[in-house]
Structure prediction request, 204 residues.
Amino acid sequence: MFHLNTVFVSRGIESLSGCLIKLLRSVRRKRKVFRKYKDINHPAVKSACRVARVELRKSRRNFEEKLALNIRNDSKSFFAYSRSRSRNKVHVGPVYDNSGSMTAIDFEMVNSFNGHFASVFTTEDISSIPTPSVSSVPSHNIFSDINFTTQHDVLQALSKLRVDKTAGPDEVSARLLIEIKDNIVYPLFVIFRKSLDEGVVPND
Prediction:
């Protein structure tokens, strides 16, 4: 359970330290009793094993309930745990390669998929791309449907970020932005406001 808690539970979920401490204590006591009597049929060993099983069920149930309650904020942990508990594992392959032979080797399957995906795309002619007639946004129609009038608007947008989503091209995670939102809200507001007023996007 400690391993599951570390792997699947994000910082957004409450700590399970109370349940884990009870579980670890019961497991340690079971091992200590077994080392003392060296007999799995001894009443003390049976009693210690029964207590450990009860604590394990409680910890797993508590862990799964918290995963389910936090599914809106961290759906990846929920489905990763669900897949880990599934008896039916989904595997890719084997597939047919370009020569028509069946293969289950990862490298060859990747090349087969890549070759198929590349074959369905069209190569565009970029030698004669037309020049747009308007090179800048007219001053009377500058992003009128986007509203960043106050710092509070930017703060609200940052608060709505999903922490379970991957980072963008800038490799800045949503979790980091949420953690430091109070410190970056003003500089972001200045950048957004200037970009909207001038109708241009910064190069960086």
